[in-house]
Specification:
Blueprint: H1 7-32, H2 35-44, H3 49-68, H4 72-90, H5 105-120, H6 135-140
Helix pairs in contact: 1-3, 1-5, 2-3, 3-4, 4-5
């Protein structure tokens, strides 16, 4: 049975952890690997250079939106392809992420947590987008 008193805080904890991790990985690509280095790595995989920039932007913006709790379900699902791509990149390296060049279990687990976040929703202390009134209600006003 789900405890409706604590579930919003579980969603908050997961949301902020995921968001923080995405921000950290985006900053890793920018500050440590550098954008040119990240582009070169993507190219070495046969991926287009533009995908490196899109990935960094998605990780950074998506991470911030998750931390804030803005459109959490949509953002979590939008980040799934990035983690599936990371799983693909690490698939040939074996199971453990401590293996040389990292294994695939960490990005695969991260993918699952994004699906869980999408199912849970925003949780506590989320910034929710203002909802507009339906057109019919606006006409009556």
């Amino acid at each position: 049975m789900i405890d409706s008193r604590t579930a919003p805080f579980a969603a908050l904890a997961l949301r902020t952890a995921l968001g923080t991790m995405f921000i950290a990985h985006a900053l890793l690509k920018v500050l440590v690997f550098t954008l040119p280095g990240t582009v070169q790595f993507f190219a070495s995989l046969g991926l287009p250079a533009a995908l490196a920039y899109a990935t960094v932007a998605a990780e950074l913006v998506g991470g911030v939106l998750l931390v804030l709790g803005v459109q959490t379900r949509v953002v979590a699902l939008a980040l799934v392809p990035i983690m599936l791509g990371a799983t693909w990149v690490h698939a040939g390296n074996g199971w453990l992420f401590s293996a040389p060049k990292g294994g695939w279990e960490y990005p695969a687990f991260w993918t699952v947590t994004l699906f869980v976040q999408a199912l849970l929703g925003d949780g506590a202390y989320a910034l929710r987008m203002a909802r507009t009134r339906p057109a019919r209600a606006m006409q009556a006003a």
